[in-house]
Design goal:
Shape: elongated
Structural class: alpha+beta
CATH superfamily of one domain: Beta Polymerase, domain 2
CATH architecture of one domain: 2-Layer Sandwich
Order of helices and strands: EHEHEEEHEEHEHHEHHHHHHHHHHHH
CATH class of one domain: Alpha Beta
Helix content: 40-55%
Strand content: 5-15%
Number of strands: 9
């Protein structure tokens, strides 16, 4: 029996990057032999069974051999294996593509064999912003879209790639590559609808909504949840009636349902779905924060704080071309949260709620006045 470290861990070692997840390939052994040597290993999966041992996956070669497995993987840069004796086994193009920073499919049928690899390739474009997609990759992605191969897959698989892309250094490349190859539909149809729609009047915007979203995503890079908020914040602009363009009055309220639909279609965690909805519905109000009356400010802060999105919302505003207001917002939020009802005014239903709201408004107004 031989066990080889395979895939992303070896790729990252060769690129001099930190290694996080480790996957292994088992050759010259069957499941019984492996289980006998590692009795605590747990077998999972039906269509592609793997063993889980100490948090790592142990799989068997696709096609029956190490050489065939490397040829059947998604991208050449991931088709590398490290043997226990230190020997490197690789797809014929893998080492060259790693050196040249190229994203290339392992075979002419890579995307057709598993069309979810389209989203995986787009995620790697975001994860490795210095790597360029090869003409073969672009062609295979377009072919998968043109033949309707992107439909009918497990939503969790597509959503997992999208979520990983949100955590990447250049998240817009996930969207840009999918858009360039006509792969946004059906999974990210709300983004496809943003293409060609002016982001706003010319004095404020010089691009369509999709390009604007991509720019805001990259500004938010480093915080996956904030990047998702950036992706979702202007989806409502695609719903603006053509006769109203280039203005988008009411796009914030209109975008809430679009953000929810997208998040649920991808089976994203509830924290992402709620953050996307809040970004769509509240970002314009947050842009106007300094103009709001104390009561409206308090209501906005309480809604955001209930979801722990206050800081992220105002970072989104700054990335969206708005003012940097986070220091002021944090100061005023502290003043609001410090308010406590007198004991004799507690537990009185609506009356207590109304008094608490009034006291919070007074505390916020006092904080503003003290800063003069």
């Amino acid at each position: 029996m031989q066990i080889l470290l395979v895939g992303g861990a070896v790729r990252d070692m060769l690129l001099g990057r930190p290694v996080t997840d480790r996957d292994y390939l088992v050759v010259h052994a069957d499941h019984e032999m492996f289980q006998g040597r590692y009795p605590t290993a747990r077998l999972v999966g039906k269509s592609f069974p793997v063993f889980i041992l100490d948090g790592c996956e142990y799989a068997w070669p696709r096609g029956g051999s190490l050489e065939s497995d490397l040829l059947l993987r998604d991208l050449t840069i991931n088709a590398v294996a490290l043997a226990e004796d230190g020997a490197i086994h690789a797809h014929p193009m893998a080492l060259m593509d790693l050196q040249a920073s190229v994203l290339r499919p392992c075979s002419p049928a890579s995307m057709r064999d598993d069309p979810v690899r389209v989203f995986r390739a787009a995620r790697f474009a975001a994860q490795f912003p210095d790597f360029s997609p090869s003409p073969e990759l672009l062609a295979q992605m377009r072919e998968a879209a043109g033949q309707g191969l992107l439909e009918g897959h497990a939503a969790e698989r597509v959503g997992r790639e999208a979520a990983k892309a949100m955590a990447a250094p250049k998240p817009s490349r996930f969207v840009r590559l999918l858009a360039a190859t006509d792969c946004l539909r059906p999974w990210l149809a709300e983004l496809e609808a943003c293409r060609g729609v002016p982001a706003g009047p010319a004095q404020y915007h010089d691009s369509d909504v999709l390009e604007h979203i991509c720019r805001v995503m990259d500004c938010a890079a480093g915080d996956a949840l904030l990047v998702w908020m950036a992706l979702a914040h202007d989806l409502g602009k695609a719903l603006t009636p053509p006769e109203r363009l280039p203005r988008h009055h009411g796009h914030d309220e209109a975008g809430v349902a679009a953000a929810e639909a997208l998040g649920r279609r991808l089976r994203l965690p509830m924290a992402f779905i709620e953050a996307g909805m809040a970004a769509a519905g509240e970002h314009m109000r947050a842009h106007r924060y300094r103009e709001l009356r104390p009561g409206t400010k308090v209501d906005l802060l309480m809604r955001l704080e209930a979801r722990r999105l206050t800081s992220r919302m105002f970072k989104l505003v700054a990335c969206d071309g708005g003012e940097v207001m986070l220091p002021q917002v944090r100061r005023e939020l502290r003043a609001v949260l410090a308010v406590r009802l007198p004991e004799d005014k507690q537990d009185q239903g609506e009356a207590s709620g109304a008094l608490l709201h009034q006291l919070r408004c007074e505390a916020l107004a006092s904080s503003v006045k003290s800063r003069g």
